[in-house]
Please model this.
Amino acid sequence: GQNIDQPTEMTATEGAIVQINCTYQTSGFNGLFWYQQHAGEAPTFLSYNVLDGLEEKGRFSSFLSRSKGYSYLLLKELQMKDSASYLCAVSVVTDSWGKLQFGAGTQVVVTP
Amino acid sequence: GAVVSQHPSRVICKSGTSVKIECRSLDFQATTMFWYRQFPKQSLMLMATSNEGSKATYEQGVEKDKFLINHASLTLSTLTVTSAHPEDSSFYICSARDKLAGVTYEQYFGPGTRLTVT
Model:
């Protein structure tokens, strides 16, 4: 299986920047996803990284280093609505169905 | 595009009864659908992988006789919780992979079903 670690909770102020780290140990890595999940709702897709480097999408950016088994999600210009759980998920090539293994999630609390 | 629906969104049932949850891909064909369970303040735990026209593959520790999965078409998968007990109360979420997704393993999630067993 894969060990996927991310911090349990982070707190930041509205307008600030927060970086959520995710480390993983896996064989046959085939991509890393970040999802946002508000309480009681389904996860929504934020980003996908399969090659090393930074992917930027508006206020959200995601970085991947395959050699280090490390990714981060960067949230800029935080808004109150960004308060949610952020899930890191990994897929592996050995699974042709594209199963994802999820980390425990990082609860981000944005304060005024 | 890529919308997945689930029905019902909430269900309350008595202990010992069975409950069926439907997962539909509305605007794409899904050869593979996934069923997850999520307890409060915890992450998604994969229960099983469902492929159209074949038997589902269950994750270790998930009872296949208790959680019956049927993937009868490219747009519909069902999860039946048989003889439900209070410990089965949870948030059940399905997701689907687009048949045309190729090597991108993005999953589109349904809105989830909140099951409460009394």
Q: What stands out?
A: The mean pLDDT of chain B is 90. Residues 73 and 108 of chain B are 17 Å apart (CA to CA).
